[in-house]
Design a protein that fits this description.
Blueprint lengths: L1 H7 L14 H14 L4 E5 L15 H6 L7 E4 L4 E5 L6 H5 L6 E4 L5 H8 L5 E4 L6 H13 L3 E4 L4 H5 L12 E2 L2 H4 L3 H14 L4 E4 L2 H8 L1 E2 L12 E5 L5 E3 L7 H8 L3 E3 L4 H10 L3 E5 L5 H9 L3 E5 L2 H7 L3 H28 L7 H13 L6 E2 L4 E4 L21 E7 L1 E3 L2 E2 L2 E7 L4 H18 L3 E2 L8 H9 L10 E3 L8 E6 L12 E4 L2 E4 L3 E4 L2 E8 L8 E6 L17 H18 L5 H10 L5
Parallel strand pairs: 1-5, 3-4, 5-6, 8-13, 11-12, 13-14
Antiparallel strand pairs: 1-2, 2-3, 7-9, 8-10, 10-11, 15-18, 16-17, 17-20, 18-19, 21-28, 22-23, 24-27, 25-26, 27-28
Helix pairs in contact: 5-6, 12-13, 15-16, 17-18
Length: 612
């Protein structure tokens, strides 16, 4: 029966992804390979050569070695310890997925990788790293940390994991499609001109496009090389004048796509990319390398050939982050469609969950089915997080056949999203199954108050996400509570569900601009018992304030789905907060009801009744 459930899913697997049991043997093999190569340690990041979040199976070295399947982390392998570093989203998950007899989980909330290395790297040790998988800035930080310990960091010519990973999958070769103007809203020709204008302004001779998201945005293409994100993996070199060079595997291109791309750029095989970098170096060119996604290998190639690597932000990042009118309207339509699907799912859940026979996998499959029935779903934007009870306390929990839990009285958290050609969605709802405890209602209401504080925030133009992150935390802080992830991340347009450089976080130093889309998702997690998160996507827009002495911005909420009122302690809400919730639920009813069947529309009306 369970196998039948797995086969019914088009976009996600519930099979056990972690190869936890293999970790100790693979670690021993790696240590032997390091010893043979004259190395005392090695750094194994989650990243591929493009620093992507969702990497092809052929690039999953970190997961292959450690068993940890989260979207971020690094393993530092030393002679006596192998430390697996994860952020606050994964402190519980990592302990379940790695063999702690071989690997030591370390939270970056408590100590940075650099500080840990400075304290734990053996003196005189030689620690290797793959220069393709680390950015120049990261290499500089790590090298300084290793030096503080009296050790050395050295680049290796080939990754030792690739030599011992005998059944490593082949690189992906997903077909590339053109992203139509009706979705993109701007031609690739105009985008290239904008980028070249930015290069001219910064007195740069060229740009290496190392981020596949930027590559897809610039040339108006989408691909099939990574799960959940329609990426075409490759590189491009954009000169300040003339034709760009686009390095893509020819197997990904049909004749029509190749013909279209050839009008924009010289299309070459990836094997020619190194030669392209050397040509830049030979010409003594000053070349921008993206600090966030370009590997140290690219910097070395340009510098060694005589060029000047300029490490900074790819100008495409901000251009891509600010959606144009077509993309904004597409996002609204995608969220309307997605809201209908999510609401149909929530109505189903309200009927089925109390019966006690449904599981986390049942819920994830039903939600996927509701999205598929829109007829326009291309993929899920990430594996659905469907956590019941204590699993809800794991922010990035992924249900498997082995962990699958029945939906029993308590809390159920579902965080999910869809990929549509007109937009990418991401929404979280926390649902009470049966009567919630007073503590649950208190915590949920505090999270809701933080969510409303972000949704209603008005802030001066030029403000970054760091300036408003605390708005979401104050109601929790007042009760001595907090959460260990950022309040919001950027969202792409039929691209990554996690898009930079904009974010609402203490680390978010990029000013928010009209047209950017970010998530609003404060939470609270009580380990081993329950977790709460309320997430909508919001669009940054201009705000008109009479008598204002400068320009101000605010947010338009895009996501449309009911928030569980049974979890709200209305006595904790101010009249303004209650008015916001009632207005939001009014919007949800008006927008979604015309697309729902009679019973679901009636249910929606009941659960969105105004709070007194």
């Amino acid at each position: 029966m369970m196998q039948d459930q797995i086969l019914r899913s088009r976009f996600q697997s519930f099979a056990e992804a972690s190869e936890r049991a293999e970790g100790p043997g693979r670690l021993a093999a790696l240590r032997k390979a390091l010893k043979d190569a004259g190395l005392d340690g090695f750094l194994v990041p989650k990243a591929d050569a493009h620093q992507s979040e969702y990497v092809p199976k052929s690039e999953e070295r970190f997961a292959w070695l450690t068993g940890f399947t989260g979207s971020a982390g690094i393993c530092v392998v030393l002679p006596e310890v192998a430390a697996v570093f994860v952020d606050g989203r994964y402190t519980l998950q990592v302990r379940d997925e790695v063999d702690q007899a071989a690997f030591t989980p370390v939270s970056t909330v408590e100590v940075s990788v650099e500080d840990w290395l400075a304290k734990n790297a053996p003196k005189q040790a030689v620690i290797g790293f793959d220069p393709a998988l680390h950015t120049p800035d990261a290499v500089e930080r790590l090298a300084k940390a290793v030096m503080r310990a009296g050790a050395r960091l050295v680049a290796v010519a080939s990754n030792p994991i690739d030599d011992i990973w005998t059944d490593r999958p082949k690189p992906p070769s997903g077909a590339i499609q053109l992203h139509d103007m009706s979705f993109a809203g701007e031609s690739a020709t105009d985008k290239i001109k904008r980028v070249q204008g930015a290069l001219e302004k910064d007195r740069l001779d060229g740009l290496v496009v190392s981020d596949p998201h930027a590559l897809c945005w610039l040339f108006n293409i989408r691909g099939g090389d990574a799960a959940h994100t329609p990426l075409a993996i490759g590189y491009a070199i954009v000169p300040k004048g003339g034709r760009p060079s686009l390095f893509l595997d020819a197997r990904k291109l049909d004749n029509a796509v190749r013909a279209s791309l050839t009008e924009l750029a010289d299309v070459e095989e990836p094997s020619r990319f190194e030669a392209g970098l050397r040509e830049l170096g030979n010409a003594k060119a000053r070349v921008r390398l993206d600090a966030a996604t370009a590997g140290e290998r690219l910097r070395l190639a340009i510098k060694e050939a005589g060029g000047v690597p300029d490490i900074g932000r790819d100008p495409i990042a901000l251009m891509k982050a600010v959606k144009n009118a077509t993309e904004i309207e597409g996002a609204r339509q995608a969220h309307l469609r997605d809201g209908v699907a999510v609401t149909r799912f929530l109505a189903w859940l309200a009927k089925e969950a109390p019966q006690g026979s449904r599981t986390e996998i049942d819920a994830a499959l039903k939600l996927e089915e509701c999205r598929v029935e829109t007829g326009l779903l291309k993929a899920l934007s990430f594996p659905t997080i469907a956590g019941a009870g204590p699993h809800a306390a794991i922010p990035h929990y992924r249900v498997t056949v082995a962990t699958n839990r029945k939906l029993s009285p308590g809390i159920f958290l579902v965080d999910s999203g869809g990929q549509y050609q007109d937009g990418t969605t991401d929404i979280t709802r926390t649902i009470a199954i049966g009567p919630p405890s007073e503590e649950m209602r208190d915590r949920f209401t505090r999270v809701l108050k933080g969510h409303i504080a972000i949704a209603t925030a008005v802030f001066p133009k030029g403000s970054s996400g760091a300036r408003i992150d605390a708005f979401a935390r104050r109601p929790l802080w007042e009760a001595g509570l907090d959460f260990d992830h950022g309040t919001g991340h950027g969202i792409g347009s039929y691209l990554s569900v996690h898009e930079g450089p904009q974010r609402i976080s203490v680390l978010g130093n990029v000013p928010l601009e009209p047209g950017m889309i970010v998530s609003n998702e404060p939470g609270y997690y009580k380990a081993g018992e329950y977790g709460i998160r309320i997430e909508n996507l919001v669009l940054v827009e201009k705000r008109s304030i009479e008598g204002a002495d400068r320009e101000y911005l605010g947010f338009e909420t895009l996501s449309l789905a009911p928030i569980d009122a049974s979890l709200i302690d209305s006595a904790l809400l101010t009249p303004t907060e209650t008015a916001w919730l009632n207005a939001y639920h009014g919007r949800v009813r008006t927008a979604l009801a015309p697309f729902l069947d009679r019973d679901t529309a009636r249910w929606l009306g009941e659960v969105t009744r105004p709070l007194a």
